[in-house]
Amino acid sequence: MNKKFLVLLMTMGLSIVACGKNDDFYNEDNGCGVGLEECVSECDTAEDSLITADDEVLEVTVENENEDISFSILDDGKTVLEKLGEPASTTDDGDYHTSKYYNAGELTYSTEGDTTEIVEFKSFSDAWKTSKGITIGSTAEEIISAYGESGCEYDSEDGDHMISYTYTNGYSIYFTLNDNNEVICFQMCIGRG
């Protein structure tokens, strides 16, 4: 069985288990997360809301011009970790995922044998932007202009507005907006679709 497909299935299953047993698994109190009691909104998985990307790798690419770093969550995890360098801190859940925290974001990955794959990247700083130029402080109008109309928008329990894009190959991009309709966080995830 293809290892990437197996990791995707494991991640999807872990997302479901994590949401049911530990609401904070992907949603620490940092202003960024899918933050709903269901963890994944019904509209995230509705067939008519799934998107096909023209360039799947580019669609989930982020860049930090200040540090001259660019990567896709679909890139080889070891290569991404080398690009990011030494983290401020690390959390290992002991089972499937390790999270590395950097000044401007968080990278979660899974390692099996010699294979390391990215599971999720969260940005809390305008140092990072998506391949379509969306960053912290971007507006809802700029998101829609860059990505098109979202198939899924909802409000979190904290009152933040969420705009999400879920793709047919199983990854998702979430933008968390404040009351001024400005991005306060964005995350790219594998296994949310």
Structure characterization notes:
- With 193 residues, this protein is α+β, with helices and mostly antiparallel strands.
- It is built from five helices and twelve strands.
- Strands 1, 4, 5, 6, 7, 9, 10, 11 and 12 form a nine-stranded mixed sheet that branches.
- The model is unreliable at 1-30 and 34-41 (pLDDT under 50).
Summary keywords:
193 residues; alpha+beta; nine-stranded mixed sheet; three-stranded antiparallel sheet; 5 helices; globular
- State the separation between the terminal residues, measured CA to CA: 20 Å
Order of helices and strands: HHEHEEHEEEEEHEEEE
Reported for the largest beta sheet, the result is:
9 strands, mixed
User: What's the tally of helices?
Assistant: 5
Tell me roughly what share of residues is in helical segments. 10-25%
Mean pLDDT over the full residue set: 78
| Helical/strand content category | alpha+beta
